[in-house]
């Protein structure tokens, strides 16, 4: 059993660490809303800072690394959310009438 649990000698430590960091970045969605919201704000702030640094160095922006793009996406999501709420209300009213 001990041999089955041991790690292979040729493990790529950098890839393993990147996987751990990525898992931490995306796992916050399974937490309570308050904690998830704080993590989301932190991740967005990190992306925005990265976009600012890239702009200062004359590099192309990384995906979602500009607040302008995120504001556009936020507007799209809010529009979708509003339309979904409106449809749900209409369904509810239709059920009440029947």
From TrEMBL:
Pfam assignment, any one: PDEase_I
Source domain of life: Eukaryota
Keyword Cell membrane tagged: no
Domain PDEase: 1-98
Gene Ontology MF terms: 3',5'-cyclic-nucleotide phosphodiesterase activity; metal ion binding
GO biological process entries: signal transduction
Coiled coil: none
Residue positions binding Zn(2+): 25
Keyword Nucleus found: no
Keyword annotations of the record: Hydrolase, Metal-binding
Record's protein name: PDEase domain-containing protein
């Amino acid at each position: 059993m001990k041999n089955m649990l041991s790690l292979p000698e040729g493990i790529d430590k950098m890839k393993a660490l990147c996987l751990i960091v990525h898992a931490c970045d995306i796992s916050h969605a399974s937490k309570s809303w308050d904690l998830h919201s704080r993590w989301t704000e932190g991740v967005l702030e990190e992306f925005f800072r990265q976009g600012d640094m890239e702009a200062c160095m004359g590099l192309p922006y990384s995906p979602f690394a500009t607040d302008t793009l995120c504001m556009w996406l936020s507007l799209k999501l809010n529009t979708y959310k509003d339309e979904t709420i409106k449809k749900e209300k209409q369904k509810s009213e239709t059920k009440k009438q029947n």
